Amino acid sequence: MAVKEILTYPDPRLKTACAPVAELDDEVQSLIQDLIDTMVAAGHSVGVAAPQIGDCRRVVVVDVSHSKLGKENNHGLMVMVNPEILEREGCETMREGCMSVPDFTGNVTRAQNILVQFTDREGRDQAIRADGFEAVAIQHELDHLDGMLFLDRVSNLKTDVFRRKNR
Ligand code: ZN
């Protein structure tokens, strides 16, 4: 149970494909709590993936309920173990940021609605439909599990990536 340091680009651990979780044991529960603590401590964060704190297992936490864009339409705090997107519909382009890429934001095109399946913190299998900002946040976090950053998704690094004015 601790706030962890967020690894930043170009740390090679962010480029690694993560391994599925075999069992929801105490060690995984403690990883989940670290992810939640780290997300909450960051204040503005809407999600953290395990590789961002140097752990290469397929676990993310997402919570857009405190964000301007996500507060009207969300599932609250979600702990997703071994998440997988089963369906994707529509597409939209949004400006994304990432704690692992602190100096830049970028325009990324993703599915508008998704059906995502995962195991929750209690070990139950879940499938939820998400749309809008929450769907984008989930897709962004799941990319981390495959070693992908939003920088890998922008169509043009010259025109679709922007330096943050202030941090
Ligand atoms: Zn990120």
Reconstruct the topology from this structure.
Elements: H1 26-41, E1 47-49, E2 59-62, E3 78-89, E4 92-96, E5 104-110, E6 113-119, E7 125-131, H2 132-145, E8 161-163
Antiparallel strand pairs: 1-2, 2-3, 3-6, 4-5, 5-8, 6-7
The protein binds zinc ion.
The site of zinc ion has 4 residues, from helix 2.
Question: Which characteristics define this entry?
Answer:
167 residues; five-stranded antiparallel beta sheet; alpha+beta; binds zinc ion; three-stranded antiparallel beta sheet; globular
Write a brief structural summary.
With about 170 residues, the protein is an alpha+beta fold.
Description:
- By secondary structure, the protein is an alpha+beta fold.
- Helices cover 18% and strands 29% of the residues.
- The protein is built from two helices and eight strands; from the N terminus they run αβββββββαβ.
- The protein has helices at 26-41, 132-145; strands at residues 47-49, 59-62, 78-89, 92-96, 104-110, 113-119, 125-131, 161-163.
- The strands form two sheets. The chain has a five-stranded antiparallel beta sheet.
- The longest helix is centred in the N-terminal third of the chain and has 16 residues, at 26-41.
- The protein is globular, with a radius of gyration of 15 Å.
- The structure holds zinc ion (ZN).
